[in-house]
Amino acid sequence: MNNETERLPADAAGIARAAELLRAGGLVAFPTETVYGLGGDARNDRAVAGIYAAKGRPQFNPLIVHVADLAMAERFAVFSDQARDIAQAFWPGPLTLVLPLRPEAGISDLVTAGLESVAIRLPAHPVARALLTAFGGPLAAPSANPSGKISPTRAEHVMDGLSGKIAGVVDGGACAVGVESTILSLDPPRLLRPGGIPAEALEEALRQPLEAGGDAAKPNAPGQLTSHYAPGAGVRLEATEARAGEVWIGFGPDTAGADLNLSASGDLVEAAAALFATLRAADRLAQERGASVIAVAPIPEKGLGRAINDRLRRAAAPRG
Ligand code: TXA
Ligand code: MG
């Protein structure tokens, strides 16, 4: 598609227009509490194929299906008692559940990549919920950025990467959480991706420890990580000071001299919300100064720090 991308306000008229574009098989980016998603009808193969094309995704990774309510989720996935308990505790919110797919329910095989499971999420953002309700069906929605680049937390970020390639973007301002949803599979409970719900909160609700699993949960060998969330400049982690020619992103009061700071007070929630916008700002600064490396201060590996470190390790991974 090479038409102009419609920039839609997050009011009733904008949401009605977005739903209309989606019903016609178009792609519309919309805000969630985590990041902006690039939405398309999860039952429409052409729309889903269009998502991969717009993002320039090399492979068909499975996508997350967004729903308006629990009843809609149960149309597409099989919920055990435990799954329903967890959904009731954390939905709407930044948690994605991987559950057995109901194959007859019509989700495109391009969404599930042919798996027998489906990843489902009920977002909390009022604009996302209004859009899902107006559309009345499931939306496949990965983050609304070109593959491998930094995830968007504002409508302008979406336009920077995808303008002219998608039908519309609903502008709902900045995303509050700032990192993608936590992905959990059950039987046994397994953390597939650290994200906006801290693993500790899930372990407490489940009353059992999570098994680590999925490559997203094991970023211990950076060489094995696929590059993702990558700014233009290189990324150096655990940086307690800036070296010559680096842009330094700090965290906490010990890094007062940094060029930018994820959270001057050392608050992980604030840091997660600021992460992607700060990486973009550091990239611009690096370009202005002719710097080739962004150095990032150490972030504690607890709570939302796990999700932040996961994204930073991917940003620092060798570029493929
Ligand atoms: O916060 C978020 O989750 C954002 C916003 C837009 O909602 N969405 C997002 O979607 O990050 P997406 O489609 O990029 O997430 C895809 C990831 C895959 O990389 C994979 O790890 C996991 O979801 N996934 C999807 N289906 C799966 C399945 N059946 N089994 C295991 N993992 C699955
Ligand atoms: Mg993404």
From TrEMBL:
L-threonine binds at T34, H66, R121, A141, S181. Its EC number is 2.7.7.87. The keyword Transmembrane does not apply. Pfam families: Sua5_C, Sua5_yciO_yrdC. One of its GO terms (molecular function) is ATP binding. ATP binds at R57, N61, S143, S151, R193, Y229. Residues 12-197 form the YrdC-like domain. The keyword tRNA processing applies. Its main location: cytoplasm. InterPro entries: DHBP_synth_RibB-like_a/b_dom, Sua5-like_dom, Sua5/YwlC_C, Sua5_C, T(6)A37_SUA5, TC-AMP_synthase_SUA5. One of its GO terms (cellular component) is cytoplasm. SUPFAM superfamilies: YrdC/RibB (SSF55821). Keywords: ATP-binding, Cytoplasm, Nucleotide-binding, Nucleotidyltransferase, Transferase, tRNA processing. It catalyses: L-threonine + hydrogencarbonate + ATP = L-threonylcarbamoyladenylate + diphosphate + H2O. It comes from the Bacteria. It is an enzyme of class 2 (transferase). It is found in: Cytoplasm. GO terms for biological process: regulation of translational fidelity; tRNA processing. PANTHER family: SUA5, THREONYLCARBAMOYL-AMP SYNTHASE. NCBIfam families: L-threonylcarbamoyladenylate synthase. Belongs to the SUA5 family. Required for the formation of a threonylcarbamoyl group on adenosine at position 37 (t(6)A37) in tRNAs that read codons beginning with adenine. This is Threonylcarbamoyl-AMP synthase. It comes from Pseudothioclava arenosa.
